[in-house]
Amino acid sequence: MDSSQVPSKSCSICNEPTSLKCKSCSSSAYCSPKCQKEDWSLHKLLCSRLAAFSTPPGTNFRRAIYLPIHEKAPKFVWVPVEKSRLWDGEIQDDDDADFTEWLGERRFGFRMMKRNQVRNRELENEIQLTFKVTAYGSLGIPPLEVNECTGHVAKGKNISLWRGPILAMKMVGKDSELYGHIDMEDLRDLADFFTVTNAVMEM
Ligand SMILES: [Zn+2]
Ligand SMILES: [Zn+2]
């Protein structure tokens, strides 16, 4: 079997077919109580918060995961999106997201997660990480503060220090410019990502 073809409703931990769901959030699925237990220390950071984020405040809001700088636990947040427009106002098919409430006005950088290298699976829906970039080092601008949440979700196995707040949003499928709602199970892919991927260097 080609392990890169594992469907997304496979066990978050080991990719085997699932036989049980988390009773609390009814979202993450596992093959066994053993894998559920292995996921729990991460899963519990968001599990009880999903219920309050089941219904968007409006049709143009998408559920995202926010990783604050100085808090250990990530948060679900709503991010407004709208169809992008050409210079003449013509509406396009792809989405523009408004990150300012969570990331502020500074310049943004992006990183696409397409694959979970730790668990050897393709992501059915890509995850977009958005973070701040600064002209660090020039004009006396100090570096952004280290993001403690990334270290916590990666259990200290993050291979580099990410800085500033980070927002994770789920795309609809692959190579898509449409945003969907991020789910509980995406938290495992997110945590694994920091254990194998270097932070983008500030320029
Ligand atoms: Zn499993
Ligand atoms: Zn749960």
TrEMBL record:
One of the record's GO molecular function terms: zinc ion binding
Matching PROSITE patterns: ZF_MYND_1, ZF_MYND_2
SUPFAM superfamilies recorded: HIT/MYND zinc finger-like (SSF144232)
Stretches of the chain forming a coiled coil according to its record: none
Domain MYND-type: 11-47
Protein name: MYND-type domain-containing protein
InterPro entries on file: Znf_MYND
Keywords in alphabetical order: Metal-binding, Zinc, Zinc-finger
Domain of life: Eukaryota
Entries under Gene3D superfamilies matching the protein: 6.10.140.2220
A Pfam family of this chain: zf-MYND
